[in-house]
Amino acid sequence: MFESVAEKLKIAKKIVFVTGAGISQESGIPTFRGKDGLWRKYDPMKLATIDAFYDDPKLVWEWYEDRRKNILAAKPNLGHVAIADLEKYKDVRVLTQNIDGLHQRAGSSKVYELHGSIIKIKCTVCDFKKEITTSFSKVPPMCKCGNMLRPDVVWFGESLPQDVWTEAIIQARSCDVMVIAGTSLAVSPANTLPLYAKQNNAVLIEVNPEVTQMSNAIDLSIRNTSANSLPNMVSIFEEN
Ligand code: NAD
Q1: Per-residue pLDDT tens for 93-142?
Q2: CATH number of the 30-73+116-153 domain
Q3: Where are the domains positioned within the chain?
Q4: What are phi and psi of 208, to 5 degrees?
Q5: Catalytic residue annotation
Q6: Does ligand 1 come within 6 angstroms of the Cβ of 34?
Q7: Counting beta carbons within 10 angstroms of the beta carbon of residue 36, is it exposed (0 to 12), middle (13 to 18) or buried (19 or more)?
Q8: N or C: which end of the chain has fewer CB within 10 A?
Q9: 57 lines ligand 1 (CB under 6 A)
Q10: Whose CA is nearest to atom 23 of ligand 1?
Q11: Is 214 left (phi over 0), alpha (psi -120 to 50) or beta?
């Protein structure tokens, strides 16, 4: 662990993590844009937009059912666990673009799901919402009001849940260290969160084996995977 990263983490009052698909890659969940990325197999515009959903609700539902099965069978990895363990020493918030719930399952208690959750569904018309962990025998499932149900996730072109986004900006603006782990920062508005942190003169640390479009604005880049690097951030505090 870089001396300077350790120093910054030790004096930090609040550490905010911005995470993406890459942090779950080592749990066996494919990313969108990595070499094993989901998009390599599917056309992104065919599966994660509202138009695609109304064009072919069965196909979109089958994709999410398949992803939910894979995600529920996956386990949090050392990266997720390290972020949860850091809560023993610091005020930690997790702003995640992931819909897999692995941060919560690893024990993180303050997680903001910017893009919703794969275990949540909602009605396309009324305000019915529900958590599910099983599969449906017939898709698309219908709501009691007679309309189709949909995954409660944010599709490309849709806006983020206002309350979650407002809270995410508050957290980004009030941290003194932001760790950006496992995200290409290609998706907005999540990719503006580091700019809010900079408004508070926060130190930006990036954990990613690859360069991202914000790497040149990052203070400290760790070119490694999250499962390899994040546990070192916890051992800084365990050594004392
Ligand atoms: P992305 O695929 O665009 O970027 C993934 C990033 O993670 C890449 O920069 C890659 O270099 C990096 N990476 C790959 N393996 C890594 C590892 N082991 N450790 C650290 N970094 C690693 O994904 P994104 O930036 O999250 O954004 C795109 C969208 O993907 C988001 O809307 C998100 O909701 C969605 N998504 C979520 C999941 C999930 O819930 N797990 C899975 C796939 C896609």
Answers
A1: 999 999 999 999 999 999 999 999 999 999 999 999 999 988 899 999 99
A2: 3.30.1600.10
A3: 1-28+76-115+160-240, 30-73+116-153
A4: -165, 130
A5: 115
A6: yes
A7: exposed
A8: C
A9: no
A10: 21
A11: alpha
